Amino acid sequence: MSHDAEPAAQVEYADFDQPNIARMYDYHLGGSANFAIDRTVAEQALRIAPTERDYCWANRSFLGRAVRTLLTEHGIDQFLDLGSGVPTVGNVHEIAHQYDPSARVAYVDWEAIACHHARHLLGPEEHRVTVTEADVCDPETVLNSAGVAGLLDFSRPIAVLAFGILDILPTTDGAGMVSRYRDACVPGSALAVSNNAQLSRTDQEVEGLRSLLADTSTPNLYMRTAEEVAALLPGYALLDPGVVPASLWRPDQPVTEQEAQRGNVYGAVGILP
After folding, report:
1. 216-246 in b/e burial notation, b at 16+ Cβ within 10 A?
2. Which of 88, 61, 91 is nearest to 246 (CA)?
3. Is it true that domain 55-202+222-271 has CATH number 3.40.50.150?
């Protein structure tokens, strides 16, 4: 499907004139669920901070390794993906189903086009994968929705995924929000998070990105230090190597410190005792 196909154009109440961070992310990863406005602003982001595509790939690759680790090493076969965006290159259910075709994945996002495109892509996967249009800042609504409560068995371990979402929410109390999801989970469950960081970005680049995002549907960008990311996993025991630049979290191939810094994103995975 080409970039110009714009498969979600039939979503009547979506805003096609405002750039969207999920669709910009999709564009950087080579996906098709984005519009001209998203591509324009994504290219502007690259001119401001040339490492933005590195961020997207570092984040996405970490997601894949985290899902694989939780499934193959910890036996978790249920995933709640918060702020899932467009299920673009290397999405959760494709990764999980490589190792366990019966794995269940509940995607949650507030953005209409992301949800529409996700449903468009799923097809026959729907008995193992759901898409819920809801605000992740409202855990009670999310957890009680048909797409989540009807698919996931909360009497068994669940992996909550929060990739690139806690840094763009209107609240900086990410720990408070994830705690409400944690409380719905049984011991043996997991939380995997990634968060924007200023590792190789200059102050000028950070301010430029914040200014650019101010005109999108997600105008917030909250960078966190490693210590602040650790605080996003209250009650969880961190898996080795702890909070690190995402590319250094159990990489499949050797990664230099400089390469990891270009990703400008921290990652961590914790298990609920």
Report:
1. bebeebbbbebebbbebbeebeebeeebbbb
2. 61
3. yes
The predicted-structure confidence for 19-48, as pLDDT tens digits, reads as follows: 888 889 989 998 888 889 999 999 999 999
One-letter amino acid at 190 equals A
Tokens describing residue 4 = 């110009």
Distance CA(39)–CA(250), nearest Å, equals: 32
Distance set, CA 183 to CA 21, 83, 157, 161, 173 (Å): 29, 19, 12, 15, 16
pTM over 0.85: yes
Q: Are 87 and 107 in contact (CB under 8 A)?
A: yes
Instruction: Return the domain boundaries, the chain.
Output: 55-202+222-271
Tokens of 121: 């892509």
Q: How many helices (H) and strands (E) does the chain have?
A: 11, 8
Residue 26 carries which DSSP code? H
Cα 139 from Cα 226, distance rounded (Å): 25
CA distance 144 to 139: 8
User: Based on C-alpha coordinates, what's the Rg of the chain?
Assistant: 17
- 119-140 pLDDT tens trace: 877 766 567 999 999 999 999 9
The residue to which tokens 């970005």 are assigned? 201
How far apart CA 257 and CA 260 sit, in angstroms, is: 5
Residue 169 tokens read as 């929410």
